[in-house]
């Protein structure tokens, strides 16, 4: 006698899944698994601009670790899978629902952000966006055109922290650091921090003669033809410190010198856009980077630097009545910060929208640490040379 006859009867009543149901189950599982991996472990990004050249090139595809600094819990949890802030094939349709917003929380990480780490973060000024001109900061548009003109010309939308544009830069300063820049050289806590050999700055190259074989310069991609001469046999081109040193060894080169912007004149759009500070992209500071628990004195000197951090990033009501500052409707002479902040700059110093233009990056905007390049695609090269084989699986430093 088969004592399991009832089991055969039970199995016989089971319905076999259809092929469609099997495919649906597989797709749902894959989407959920991929979402968990990209939110909590690792995510792929691409480099769209030259702000980090020569460290990272346009067309580099890289992996970013969420584990190193601790994965950020989604702040806007209801969103379309694999889309960031806009639905595919559209320019303004939201890929998320901001009706549900969670407070900022981060899982424990392997380490804190260190100076010179290459970091992915959400664009701090990306909280407000002009849909028809997303390449430029809304606040830059407002400064140049005026608030009323911008609001009447463009469609304006707001974005939550984790749905703002992703940027990648090098961390120059960590919480508590005092940073400045003089003649194109960054200074952190009183010590000069020379540009990495993979970074770019304008250099003034004076040739002894222009009668030489131009092919000798091909490996450096200097593009002399696109750089008008600033004096006899003299050009200003973007180059790295390493390239500058190599150029000095050529017998037809007379001199190679760094050519930053001169100190003094105010350059429009440079943080904190204070008319009392004659700063530009190569000469600014000193600025102390806020750290959690640090108390700053509030006055006419400090508020241009910290107003946005206190009001926008930390969610306080800030206003000035006569000469008195009010925070949450109470007179305030000091403020204690609730978050850590960072100072980010691109390696291609004269082709980078970074902290020099919009200030500090709050800790809740940090996405992850760039690890390595898994693919590099040169869209301008010929068919057989489009893949930059030497960059595949290259670590990012």
Automatic annotation (TrEMBL):
Its EC number is 3.4.21.89. The active site is at residues 51, 169. It is a single-pass type II membrane protein. The chain crosses the membrane at residues 23-41. It comes from the Bacteria. It catalyses: Cleavage of hydrophobic, N-terminal signal or leader sequences from secreted and periplasmic proteins. The keyword Nuclease does not apply. It is found in: Membrane. Pfam families: Peptidase_S26. The keyword Lyase does not apply. CDD domains: S26_SPase_I. Keywords: Hydrolase, Membrane, Protease, Transmembrane, Transmembrane helix. Its main location: membrane. GO terms for molecular function: serine-type endopeptidase activity; signal peptidase activity. GO terms for biological process: signal peptide processing. One of its GO terms (cellular component) is membrane. Residues 21-198, 329-375 form the Peptidase S26 domain. Belongs to the peptidase S26 family. This is Signal peptidase I. It comes from Pedobacter roseus.
């Amino acid at each position: 006698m088969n004592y399991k006859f009832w089991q055969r009867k039970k199995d016989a009543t089971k319905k076999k899944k259809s092929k469609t149901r099997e495919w649906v189950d597989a797709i749902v599982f894959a989407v959920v698994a991929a979402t968990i991996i990209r939110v909590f472990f690792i995510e792929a990004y691409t480099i769209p601009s030259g702000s980090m050249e020569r460290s990272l090139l346009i067309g580099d595809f890289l992996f970013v670790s969420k584990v190193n600094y601790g994965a950020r819990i989604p702040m806007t949890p209801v969103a379309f899978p694999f889309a960031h802030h806009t639905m595919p094939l559209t320019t303004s349709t939201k890929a998320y629902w901001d009706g549900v917003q969670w407070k900022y929380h981060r899982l424990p990480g392997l380490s804190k952000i260190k100076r010179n780490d290459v970091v992915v973060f959400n664009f701090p000024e990306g909280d407000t966006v002009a849909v028809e001109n997303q390449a430029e900061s809304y606040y830059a548009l407002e400064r140049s055109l005026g608030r009323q003109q911008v609001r009447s010309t463009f469609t304006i939308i707001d974005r939550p922290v984790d749905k703002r544009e992703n940027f990648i830069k090098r961390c120059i300063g960590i919480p508590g650091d005092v940073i400045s820049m003089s003649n194109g050289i960054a200074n952190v806590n009183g010590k000069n921090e020379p540009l990495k050999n993979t970074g770019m700055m304008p250099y003034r190259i004076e040739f002894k003669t222009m009668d030489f074989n131009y092919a000798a310069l091909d490996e450096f991609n200097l593009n002399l033809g696109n750089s008008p001469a600033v004096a006899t046999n003299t050009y200003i081109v973007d180059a790295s410190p390493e390239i500058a040193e190599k150029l000095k060894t050529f017998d037809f080169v007379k001199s190679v010198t760094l050519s930053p912007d001169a100190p003094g004149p105010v350059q429009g759009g440079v943080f904190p856009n204070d008319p009392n500070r004659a700063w530009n992209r190569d000469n600014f500071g000193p600025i102390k980077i806020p750290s959690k628990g640090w108390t700053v004195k509030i006055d006419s000197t400090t508020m241009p630097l910290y107003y946005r951090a206190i009001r926008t990033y930390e969610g306080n009501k800030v206003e000035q009545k006569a000469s008195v500052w009010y925070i949450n409707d109470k007179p305030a002479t000091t403020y204690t910060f609730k978050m850590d902040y960072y100072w980010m700059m691109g390696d291609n110093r004269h082709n980078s929208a970074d902290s020099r233009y919009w200030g500090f990056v709050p800790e809740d905007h940090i996405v992850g640490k760039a690890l390595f390049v898994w693919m590099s695609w040169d869209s301008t090269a010929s068919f057989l040379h489009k893949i930059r084989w030497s960059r595949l699986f290259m670590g990012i430093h």
